[in-house]
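lol forgot to send this yesterday, sorry. struct tokens for the thing we talked abt
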């Protein structure tokens, strides 16, 4: 818990973030991971079954792993992702950009 002093006389207490992945991400990861690691074959199953990409290939899954190896090379070993790296892969804005905002103006 972090405490801040406001105006020299008030104190505010803030709870810190837990730093854990959301429960649904943890569940998906544990379903496909082996010994806490996700390899290209398991990532391919995840892409097909959960992400809804039936045409995904092993080469594409390997490319995703290699992309993460480039970003987190010191933490990712042997082409496998741990839970934190898997979460970062899912939240990568280059791979999962925000939805485009479409505005339709209707004449009145």
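and heres what i got for the seq, position by position
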């Amino acid at each position: 818990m972090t405490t801040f002093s406001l105006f020299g006389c008030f104190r505010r207490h803030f709870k810190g973030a837990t730093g854990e992945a959301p429960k649904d991400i943890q569940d998906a990861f544990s379903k496909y991971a082996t010994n806490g690691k996700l390899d290209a074959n398991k990532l391919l199953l995840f892409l097909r079954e959960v992400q809804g990409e039936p045409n995904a290939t092993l080469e594409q899954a390997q490319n995703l792993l290699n992309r993460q190896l480039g970003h987190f090379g010191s933490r990712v070993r042997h082409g496998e992702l741990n839970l934190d790296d898997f979460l970062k892969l899912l939240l990568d804005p280059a791979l999962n950009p925000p939805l485009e905002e479409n505005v339709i103006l209707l004449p009145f």
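The longest strand covers residues 2-6. anyway ping me if u want another try
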